């Protein structure tokens, strides 16, 4: 009887612990990761390569995928230096904004994934939408982006 009571008490404590949701360190990590991504886009919108570089690891992989006009899947990788150059060379006459619409962040120890919805606007006109999937690593207390892949398309973007 004593063993049964101990088992029941253990199950009650265990279920109470898991029903409380995320623990504070995980919530703090998610907030830090969201801040890194928002800082990345702050640098993106300001066309400031030093801000963008502050959010990424020494080696970062950039890729994109989507459907072309014929409906075929396309996939390409972009060199980070070329990406920075293309962002920083956009003329002042061109207004662009990537509006982040949602965040889903998972963390396990020193690794995280952030699934971030977005809409891209060019000269105040809707261009496309998709998902940015970020992989991040915690380098001794500092989260850095190591990998970014995005999807791009127009279908299913705007809720009328």
């Amino acid at each position: 009887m004593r063993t049964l009571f101990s088992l029941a008490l253990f199950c009650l404590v265990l279920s109470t612990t898991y029903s409380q949701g995320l623990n504070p360190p995980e919530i703090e990590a998610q907030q830090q990761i969201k801040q890194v991504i928002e800082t990345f886009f702050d640098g993106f919108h300001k066309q400031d390569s030093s801000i963008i570089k502050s959010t990424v690891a020494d080696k970062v992989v950039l890729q994109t995928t989507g459907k072309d006009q014929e409906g075929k899947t396309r996939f390409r990788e972009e060199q980070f230096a070329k990406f920075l150059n293309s962002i920083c060379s956009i003329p002042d006459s061109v207004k662009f904004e990537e509006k982040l619409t949602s965040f889903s962040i998972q963390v396990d120890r020193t690794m995280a994934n952030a699934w971030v919805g977005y809409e891209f606007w060019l000269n105040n006109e809707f261009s496309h939408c998709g998902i940015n999937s970020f992989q991040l690593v915690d380098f001794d207390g500092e989260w850095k982006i190591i990998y970014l892949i995005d999807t791009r398309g127009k279908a299913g973007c705007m809720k009328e």
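Helices lie at 2-19, 24-46, 49-53, 80-88. Residues 24-46 form the longest helix (23 residues).
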